[in-house]
Amino acid sequence: MMDGYQKDGSPRFKTFYGKTQKEVKLKLKEYQDALISGVQLDTILYFEDWADTWFEGHRDNIAPTTQESYKYCLKMLKEGFYHRPLTVIRPINIENFLKGMRRDGRSDSYISKARGMLYQIFQKAEANDLVRRNPVRLAEKMRASGTAKRKEAFTTAEVAHLMKVLPDDRMGLSIRL
Fold it and tell me: What CATH number is given to the structural domain containing 125?
């Protein structure tokens, strides 16, 4: 496909490859849609590079302890999407990554945190015209893996008994809080 002219006036061609004609036509359509929507196509930006850029811009908005937990999660995300251009990551890739986390024994809350970070990373990429749409928004959310554990709480009678028997020193007062 010819998509313009070079500086010297000669035509500039863009070539698409695929295993089938249907795949080539799909790539061509995605390219044309991206041109129309203004997405920057000249440079390839890899996930790990954009994730680092996002984190550096986001770190001033979060507490130091949150930064540390984000760093650990970000490391895992970068390993999962290593050397993949942002523009080729699809909702199915997000879903498969999160399912892999579950298979590896990650907790539901950690999977939710990873999905949330992915959402923020791609949301910022979309806002900066690096991707046409956020693939995380289109990926199905995972349901909790098991039944919620029953939480135990003191009854009113147990609380009244504790208040009677707790000492009046620092320890007793801190427990009362």
Answer: 1.10.150.130
